[in-house]
UniProtKB/TrEMBL annotation, chain A:
Major localisation: cytoplasm
GO molecular function, one term: ubiquitin binding
Name listed for the protein in its UniProt record: Vacuolar protein-sorting-associated protein 36
Superkingdom: Eukaryota
TrEMBL record, chain B:
GO terms under cellular component: ESCRT II complex
GO biological process per UniProt: protein transport to vacuole involved in ubiquitin-dependent protein catabolic process via the multivesicular body sorting pathway
SUPFAM superfamilies per UniProt: Winged helix' DNA-binding domain (SSF46785)
InterPro entries cross-referenced by the UniProt entry: ESCRT-II_cplx_Vps25-sub, ESCRT-II_cplx_Vps25-sub_N, WH-like_DNA-bd_sf, WH_DNA-bd_sf
Family recorded in the similarity comment: Belongs to the VPS25 family.
Source organism, top-level taxon: Eukaryota
GO molecular function: protein homodimerization activity; structural molecule activity
Protein name: ESCRT-II complex, vps25 subunit
Keywords: Protein transport, Transport
PANTHER family the record matches: VACUOLAR PROTEIN SORTING-ASSOCIATED PROTEIN VPS25, VACUOLAR PROTEIN-SORTING-ASSOCIATED PROTEIN 25
Length: 536, 193
């Protein structure tokens, strides 16, 4: 949406055309011509009242934002360049000389994490502009930071000369008198340069008018209302305020409070991230539904055949995405990619309430799992490799479980049920898929070529034919993961079909890091002694 | 690389399996390993008998340039026996009574029994009989360092003592304390009388 700004009843010439973005905290203006210089951001915390004008004839719709007057005549929008810098460098506390690490949040970076004394070197304007714009009384009690560290504050009770960054006396804990500094003409460097700063600013109500020349005003206004109602910045500020309150006390108590508050923050973060997870689950459900839709349509179009049946035309008319894509290759491609994601469903998942009997329930589950693994719906065509199993003959159990539950989308199967279903699987699959557990505890499902005996025969044949091989070479030959190949080979070694040759026993170059294991066909089994005969 | 037998410079015929690289690796599979261990034991004892070696130390596999190089190292296939492999070989030989730790209470060095003490006893007795020294008192030194080379030359005292023990149990020898140590007197034995 295009917009122009009107500041204090004058139109802002620099902000004639651009895009408005809105977040929960700020309003961003990105200029279409000069992005680097003319864009700015406005904290929503300053907005007290909003107005919406629908537009009439030639005048475009407008949104008016009435703004509070901050305590000092400083900026409203805080540029990113001023806020970001101090938080990301390490600094040394002047009181305890602790070297504070960088990367803390902007509020935490202003306070020494060891002793809790506020950092004195942070320039005050940034401090005020970034985090405490709406609380002038609080900022008054915190000693304003002077750039002259020699000024000390005499305690009114014990006359001890305190460091200016302390708020209570170091000796007797009496609150210290605040020293007002006259040089409080703060001005942030990146405040919108265009904003007229006239002396009568204090009297004229401050406001911004946003004119929507290309529409989008309604959407913007409702989003704005929502953000203002949400007051996301207040939560943040409360956190900062309490933290600040805590850190005004120094000593062990202060440290304890810092620890406490950081624990609290961690907990909050954790909750936030769990919320994200829930959102993801919702999305996953949608995705599954989409896959189901897609599959249904594909099935429908496939059954209707290439001749344009009424059903077909109805599909083409209502879904634009999928339409002439009923050509077999593309349909196959879509299906196979769905299958690879595990999002393949020929029907709705079986759930417990559909089936009364426990035994039957497991049977049905096994049937469903078999379908997912081998794509039973297409087995008639003789095409292979579209199920979850694909062209691989062996799959770790966790992958199967994950893929199955992804395919189900709803009513997920717990691992315990999954394990009960697995023994039934072989009767529903062709070729039968069986379960196998390796010595290390790794469980896999596999097709007949990957039974221990079959693999051992194949491996010893391979070794006899093409000489000793490393595990990696075997894995390449068998097209399986190296870890899995290792397990399989170990099992074969247990069976005594092969033996190992460790490169560590090399006379030269063996003890290095590149020592590798080579597998040999078992040369000991068929060996008969042909060495020195012991007749002395 | 072809797997074939090989004759060492000292004239010992190494079996073909000695040219197979896996032979020098400690096998994990118990069955395979016991086969390999049997072959190793046979090579070691055979070589010891061939060279008349009585002691085997783990150090022999750790360093080169000793009596055991010919069997513990195979330069042709660039393989050597690792010390820890030798340790396990030695312990299995001790278990099978084919060697004994000497000195006792350690596992780094063994005396090899390429003849068992009973066999040594027979050899000793027949040697005494053939050299006509029955009923005379002999010192251990006279037995192990005879003026004429004998099967008992340089036999370790420990083994000799065990052999004499075997003989004295069957009444064919008697340990006698003499002025500077111990002596032994041999009898024709109950079998002859």
């Amino acid at each position: 949406m295009d917009e122009s700004f009107t500041f204090s009843s004058q139109k802002s010439p620099e902000h004639q055309s651009g895009t408005i973005h809105l977040s929960t905290h700020r309003l961003f203006y990105i200029d279409s011509q000069q992005q680097a210089t003319q864009s700015f951001a406005l904290d929503l915390a300053y907005v007290t009242q909003t107005d919406h004008y629908g537009g009439l004839f030639s005048s475009s719709p407008k949104a008016t934002l009435y703004l509070t007057t901050p305590s000092s005549s400083d900026n409203l929008g805080s540029g990113t360049s001023t806020t970001a810098v101090p938080a990301f460098e390490s600094w040394e506390c002047e009181v305890c000389a602790y070297r504070n690490p960088p990367g803390l949040s902007s509020s935490a970076a202003r306070i020494c994490s060891l002793c809790g004394v506020p950092r004195s070197a942070v320039p005050a304007p940034e401090l005020r502009a970034t985090s405490l714009p709406s609380s002038p009384p609080v900022s008054g009690t915190i000693t304003p930071v002077s750039h002259d560290p020699t000024i000390s504050i005499a305690c009114s009770a014990c006359t001890f000369l305190n460091h200016p960054s302390l708020s209570v006396c170091e000796i007797c804990s009496t609150p210290l008198p605040t020293v007002k500094h006259s040089e409080r003409s703060f001005s942030a460097k990146s405040a919108p340069a265009s904003r007229p700063r006239s002396p009568d600013d204090e009297t004229v109500p401050r406001m911004i008018k946003i004119s929507f020349r290309k529409g989008g005003d309604k959407a913007f206004y409702s989003a704005l209302k929502r953000s203002l109602k949400g007051k996301a910045w207040e939560n943040n500020e409360r956190g900062i305020l309490s933290e600040r309150h805590a850190t005004t006390r120094s000593g062990i108590n202060g440290i304890l409070r810092v620890v406490e508050s950081s624990a609290q923050n961690r907990e909050n973060d954790l909750q936030d991230s769990l919320q994200d997870l829930e959102a993801l689950m919702n999305k996953a459900k949608e995705m599954v539904r989409l896959a189901a839709d897609l599959n249904e349509k594909l099935t429908a179009s496939a059954s209707s055949g290439p001749s344009a049946s009424p059903l077909m035309t109805s599909i083409t008319s209502d879904s634009s995405a999928l339409v002439p894509a009923t050509e077999p290759e593309e349909a196959t491609f879509i299906r196979s990619s769905l299958a690879q994601l595990g999002l393949q469903m020929t029907n709705t998942p079986v759930t417990l309430d559909m089936i009364k009997d426990d035994r039957k329930w497991f049977d049905e589950l096994a049937r469903e799992l078999a379908g997912i693994l081998q794509d039973s719906s297409r087995s008639g065509n003789g095409s292979t490799g579209t199920g979850l199993l694909g062209e691989r003959g062996i799959l770790p159990l966790d992958e199967v479980w994950g893929g199955w539950n992804r395919a189900r989308g709803v009513a997920l199967i717990p691992p315990s049920t999954f394990l009960q279903v697995i023994p039934l699987l072989s009767s529903y699959t062709d070729p039968p898929i069986r379960h196998r557990t390796f010595a290390s505890g790794l469980s896999v499902l596999h097709t007949p070529p990957f039974t221990d005996a079959a693999f051992a025969a194949r491996l010893s044949g391979l070794l006899a034919l093409s000489g000793p091989k490393t595990t990696i070479e075997v894995a390449q030959e068998e097209k399986m993961a190296v870890g899995l190949a290792m397990e399989m080979i170990d099992a074969v070694e247990q069976g005594g079909y092969i033996c190992r040759d460790d490169a560590q026993s090399k006379i030269t170059g063996g003890s290095g890091g590149g020592a590798e294991l080579r597998w040999w066909a078992n040369i000991f089994e068929s060996y008969s002694w042909d060495g020195h005969s012991n007749i002395s | 690389m072809s797997i074939a037998t090989h004759t060492t410079p000292s004239g010992y015929l190494l079996p073909s399996i000695h040219s197979a690289p896996p032979f020098f690796t400690k096998q994990i599979n118990p069955t395979t390993r016991s086969i390999a261990d049997d072959h190793w034991t046979r090579i070691i004892l055979g070589y010891a008998r061939h060279r008349r070696l009585f002691t085997l130390r783990v150090e022999d596999a750790e360093t080169s340039g000793n009596d055991w190089d010919e069997i513990f190292r195979n330069e042709r296939i660039n393989r050597r026996l690792l010390p820890d492999h030798l340790v396990s070989l030695i312990s299995s030989m001790v278990t099978n009574n084919l060697a004994v730790y000497e000195p006792p209470k350690q596992t780094r060095s063994v005396l090899l029994y390429w003849r068992r003490p009973e066999e040594w006893a027979d050899v000793l007795h027949s040697w005494v009989a053939s050299t006509g020294q029955m009923n005379t008192i002999m010192t251990f030194y006279e037995i192990t360092n005879p003026p004429v080379e004998s099967p008992l030359s340089s036999l370790p005292i420990v083994i000799l003592r065990k052999a004499i023990d075997v003989l004295s149990k069957s009444g064919r020898a008697q340990i006698i304390a003499i002025a500077d140590g111990e002596g032994v007197r041999f009898f024709p034995g109950p079998s002859k009388t």
